[in-house]
Amino acid sequence: MAGCSERGDRSHLAETSWRFERIDGERPASTDAHLTFDDGRIGVNVGCNRLGGPWRVDADNRLYAGPLAQTEMACPDPAWNQGNAVNALLVATPRMNVEGDRMILQSSGHTAELVRIENAKEGRQGD
Hints:
By secondary structure, this protein is mainly β. 10% of the residues lie in helices and 37% in strands.
């Protein structure tokens, strides 16, 4: 039941940070692109805009994120397009596959490949 709680899945994702390695098959425009899972809150920074809101994982390994608040700064491409792709991915209730320090989020329209950041605090710089 913890995976279905409104406060997220504390067993293996809470208090973890992940670096985006690929967004729809492309390297992120920003080397600081990351995703964090805190106690019941998800935080995302893909380049210039940030997303945040509640999250949970269901029994079928689908990530439910939202409603998400987003900053709306003008960004140069490709950071703008990658930020929009990640936003669309997260609101589409993506399938999540975590194996060791690697995670894949996949919806019908977008895919993200991420790697766990050793020190969870490292991924929160600039949030």
